[in-house]
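Researcher: Final request for today, and then I'll write up notes for the group meeting. The sequence and the SMILES for magnesium ion follow.
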Amino acid sequence: MENLLQRLAPNVMDKLPELAGSCGQTLVMLLISGLISFVFGLVFGVLLTVTRRGGILQNLPVFTVLDKAVNVFRSVPFIILLFALIPVTRAVAGTAIGTRGAILPLIFGTVPFFSRQIESALSELPDGLIRAAQSMGVGPMGIITRVYLRECIPGIVRASTITFVSLVGLTAMAGAVGGGGLGDFAIRYGYQRNQMDVTYASVIILLLLVSVIQALGGLIIKKTTR
Amino acid sequence: MIELKNVSKTFSTPSGSVEAVRGVSLRIQAGEIFGIIGLSGAGKSTLVQCMNLLQRPDAGSVIVGGCDLTAVSPRELREKRRGIGMIFQHFNLMASRTVLQNVMFPLRGSGMTRQQQRTRAFELLQLVGLPDKADAYPSQLSGGQKQRVAIARALAPNPRVLLCDEATSALDPQTTRSILQLLRDLGRRLGLTIVVITHEMAVVKEICGRVAVMQSGRIVEQGDVYAVFSHPREDITRELVGAAVHLRQIDELVHAGSAAVTPGPGQLLLRLTYSADNVSEALISTASRRFGVDLSIVFGSIELVQGAPVGGLVILAGGERARLEQAVRFLISKNVGVEVVLDGKSFAKAGA
Ligand SMILES: Nc1ncnc2c1ncn2[C@@H]1O[C@H](COP(=O)(O)OP(=O)(O)OP(=O)(O)O)[C@@H](O)[C@H]1O
Ligand SMILES: [Mg+2]
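Model: Predicted protein-magnesium ion complex:
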């Protein structure tokens, strides 16, 4: 086994500890930016839903600002966002490089996309359920937590899975600005030193990661769909 | 119990504004079952949603249980809504919750402990006849069962009023009956004031004491169900009274020249409309015997409204002209509406 791997992927076997470290960095980026993006995306998605015309907390100024902001950030390619945000990142995180420096751009790249996904998941809720809840004297907060978020769990999980998978792609790209992680690993050895086995190993690990996320998401959706 | 004073509601849409409710005034007494009937788009749903302010009227006031809902704060309004249950055409149950959790839904924040809420929800499921479905999910229920759960949920906070917006329109006739029976029983047992919105006369006939007929945002006619349906004053009411609708079909047959409705020489095609307490068959045979004329029924549609017949017959009448006229006069004297649809004499002439 050991021999086979040594033959197939000599460059990878050379730097196993570094590979493990890169995996760890990728996971850290994913977890931290994923968690923060999840919270913000959920909040913005809910806000987009309830403040729109006809929403339970209709507020067109808030809606319009949020809607436009989401569109603007979604239309900027991530690779450009990475550079454009350097001053902000420096101010917030103290550094614009490394794993730490990658998190803020990752959040900015993910939240708008996720907000839209959440908005569309929540829009699946039949109007009648909101009317029913209102007729029972449930207030706006109750409707958000007990109706929207509760009834749309499968849609929210689906949105989270899709977003998380695209976040994996973004973390790899963050490697381009020295963000560390598997992307960085693959670029430094696989691309710059032409060690193809490093590239393939990175691809396989990312593929595994994506598969696990999708399987997990699918499982939760199946469990929560009635 | 419910009083609407000059309630109006206009929706503005990109394609212009729609006056869904125009200056409606209504009084609904405590403990009665009040029907509001009208065709699709008449504004029934909008009107009933004004009763718990799911739609806020542009003008007028909505007084429920002595409280003007248009004047209270949002918080108070939510409190008041707990006293006004509502059920819907599409049930609107929460798919992610079990039947029991659905019924418990409106009890959150009512000061009951979780255990008390469960007990109360169970009681209600018993009341609607579904105690064994407590742990099922709505997707596992039939339409009728879903509506029973919705009724249990609406009644959980112990409201004084129950608003039903097309509550049986998605159900088959048999299930419709059982749900209506349940509503009537519950209404009686709990002393509820029930407002029933529908486009079907059968529903009103089955459970309502009084009815209002709605057309283009207005109440055009109201009163006791029997009075309104037996002596409809408005075309729309006549149209809604199923019997009238069927009797009008004759016009189409006549128009198409169908043999079944073509009177022979000297015969008359008559449309008889019954209202109050004249009993159909006896009158026909009496007239036939007394005046020596042949009266044969071509088509009949009699509905029982609160036990009394409403509707009419289409008959072919043959015999001597003078006797026929006597027979017609006799029927008119018995309060039967008589209308000559086709006269065989003129018909024969015209045809010749
Ligand atoms: N939220 C809304 N926005 C704009 N127009 C509306 C809205 N709700 C209802 N309307 C319009 O108001 C009118 C009355 O609608 P409403 O739903 O009250 O009728 P209805 O009698 O309940 O009809 P149906 O039997 O089809 O339910 C219709 O022309 C409808 O298009
Ligand atoms: Mg309606």
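Model: The mean pLDDT of chain A is 91. The pocket of magnesium ion (ligand 2) is lined by residues B 44-45, 165-166 (CB under 6 Å).
Researcher: Thanks, that's everything.
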